[in-house]
Design goal:
The chain is of the alpha/beta class. The chain has helices spanning about 40-45, 50-70, 80-85, 90-100, 110-120, 160-165, 175-195, 205-215, 225-230, 235-245, 250-255, 265-280, 295-300; strands spanning about 1-10, 15-20, 25-35, 75-80, 105, 130-135, 140-145, 150-155, 200-205, 230-235, 285-290.
């Protein structure tokens, strides 16, 4: 048995999975998530801000302490959209090395997609092939395959990027929503042709936007990963939740019992991405997965 730690640092959140790997499976020891908004402003400035780097460093210090305490044998940290796009990515890499003692791997969108697919399909009982979509803060990955990746593409549409680019009112105006929809739809159509997603039998959705929308569709009284993992959600419910979220100011979203405070201001754009993917791919339902790129990173250390 090997104890591993996988860290996924995206545009909006940084997450840790410590797991024991044995017989081709993972047994969770600890899962953690912090909203650090590393990619705040990157779409506009092209740089990681000092404040975002400081928030990320603070979260990593906590993760490093837990990794040491739990006796981890191997550590892999993957950094995705924001650190891939930023001019000062070297500053980020130096900070991570100083805290964790390992270099972060600033992975390509294609590798990000492959790791997400690996984590998502492990243990999934569903008709194949699958279209797996991982809606992040800065990008969304589209992957098709059965037991392995056949096609993958990463598009620069994510809940943080679309919010910063299009949504400036609280709640967003009809014009802002329309402009975001147009931008998202153009990217989704390119992705679905490239992968090709419309021919997939099952749609699987990953990451915080999808799991939060799923929790809201189920009217859960609190966030419950066991109720969300592998739950099936209809396009009708996703459309209803999306419309509700876009009509709410951030203060009302914050009051929702399943809403993480760091997600409330960007969840409207995230839900819009999810709804658009379902509409344009022709899928009238989605399976939500709590397992994603983080599990793929851990599997890669086995």
């Amino acid at each position: 048995m090997t104890r591993v730690a996988g860290i996924d640092c995206g545009t909006n959140s940084i997450r840790l999975l410590i797991a024991d790997v044995a017989d081709g499976g993972l047994t969770d020891v600890a899962r953690r998530m912090e909203i650090v908004r590393l990619g705040e402003g990157v779409d506009r400035t092209g740089r990681l801000s000092a404040e975002a780097l400081s928030r990320t460093r603070k979260a990593l210090l906590g993760y490093a302490a837990e990794i040491a305490e739990l006796g981890v044998n191997r550590v892999r940290m993957c950094a995705t959209s924001a650190s891939r796009d930023a001019e000062n990515a070297q500053e980020f890499r130096d900070m991570v090395r100083g805290v964790l003692g390992v270099d972060p791997e600033v992975i390509s969108g294609t590798e990000e997609a492959a790791l997400s697919f690996t984590g998502a399909v492990a243990g999934l009982q569903a008709e194949r092939p699958c279209l797996v979509v991982d809606i992040g803060g800065g990008s969304t990955e589209f992957v098709t395959g059965s037991d392995r990746v056949d096609h993958a593409i990463s598009m620069d549409i994510g809940c943080v990027r679309m919010t910063e680019r299009h949504i400036h009112s609280d709640p967003p105006s009809a014009a802002e929503i329309h402009n975001a929809e147009r931008d998202i739809a153009a990217a989704v159509d390119i992705a679905l042709t490239a992968v090709p997603g419309r021919a997939a039998t099952t749609l699987v959705g990953l990451a915080g936007t999808v799991t939060t929308v799923t929790a809201l569709a189920q009217n859960l009284p609190s966030y419950d990963a066991t109720r969300i993992h592998h739950a099936e959600v209809s396009l009708a419910d996703v459309s209803r939740v999306t419309a509700d979220l876009l009509a709410m100011p951030v203060a009302e979203r914050l009051a929702l019992p399943v809403m993480h405070p760091g997600r409330a201001d960007v969840i409207g754009a995230g839900a819009l991405i999810l709804r658009t993917i379902m509409e344009r791919s022709g899928h009238d339902s989605l399976i939500a997965s709590e397992h994603d790129i983080l599990d793929g990173i851990a599997f890669s250390l086995a």
